Amino acid sequence: MPTLLPGLPTPPICASSKFNGVNGAAYVDDLGAERCKSATREQVVDVLRRTVARLHRLRTAVVPAAETELAQLAYGDLKPEHVVFPDGPGSRPVFIDPGLLRGGQVVDAAKLISRIVLLLAATQPGPDVADDALDGIDLFTQGQLRDVDGDARAAWLRELVTLWLMDSVNIITTYLSVPPALPLPAHGEALLRRVVPAVCMVDRISEALVSGTPPRLVFQSALGHAWTAAS
User: Fold this and answer.
1) Distances from the Cα of 226 to the Cα of 161, 177, 178, 198, angstroms
2) Model confidence over 40-50: pLDDT tens digits?
3) The whole model's pTM is what?
4) What is the pLDDT of residues 116-175, one digit of tens each?
C-alpha cells in the first residue's frame, strides 16, 4: 500500500482553529510564502481563500456524528499508510495507528478518499491507474450506501464530500505553511509541485457543494475533478 503524506495531523477544518477569525484569514494569506513562486502563490492563495470560505459555510450543514444517535467508535485516522498487508496483497489487511473517536463511518470514508485522491494528484500515475483507483472509490462508496435511501443517502454523500474537502484543505495548507528548513516527505514535495491542480480540484468541488447541486451529482463530478487533477 503506498504511503501518503505521513507525519502531520489533519483534523477536519470545522474542528481546526487555524482557519478561524482574523488570524485564520492571515494564515491563509501567508500560505506558500516560502514554498511557491510568486505567480503560483497568488493563484493558490486566491483559490484557497475562496474554498475555505465555502467550507466554513458548509460546516453548519454537517451535524457531527458524535452528537447524533448514530455515533459509534470510529477508527478516526483511516488512510492508505495505516493499511498494511503483511502476508501479501491477497491476504487480510491489518490496520495500524488508529485515532479512535466517536463518529460515524463517513469520517473514515472521507479521510481515506481524501488521501487517495491527493496521492493521485501528487504522483500522476497515469489514466489507467487513476481510472482503477477512482472506480474503486465509487464502488466503495456505493457499498457504504447499499442500505441507505432517500434523504439519508443524500445527507451522507453531502457530509462525505464536505469532510473529504476539509481533510484535503488541511493537508494542502499544512504543507504550504511548512518552513523550507523543515524537510517534507517525498509525497509532500510532490504535492506542492502539483499544488495548483490540487487546489483547483477542491475549489471546483466545493463550488458544486454550495450551488445546491444534488449530492449524488456532486460526488460523481468530484470523481471527475479528481481524475483531472491526477492527469
Assistant:
1) 12, 23, 25, 8
2) 999 999 999 99
3) 0.84
4) 999 999 999 999 999 999 999 999 999 999 988 889 999 999 999 999 999 999 999 999
Cβ count near 182 (within 10 Å)? 6
**What domain range includes position 119?**
13-230
- Per the domain annotation, does 5 fall within a domain? no
**Are 150 and 197 within 8 A, CB to CB?**
no
Q: What is the CATH number of the domain that holds 128?
A: 3.90.1200
The H or E element spanning position 141 is helix 127-144
Q: Which helix (H) or strand (E) holds 73?
A: strand 72-74
**6, part of any domain:** no
Residue 8 lies in a domain: no
Count how many domains the chain has: 1
Distance CA 203, CA 229 (A): 12
Say if residue 11 is exposed, middle or buried (CB neighbours under 10 Å; 0-12, 13-18, 19+).
middle
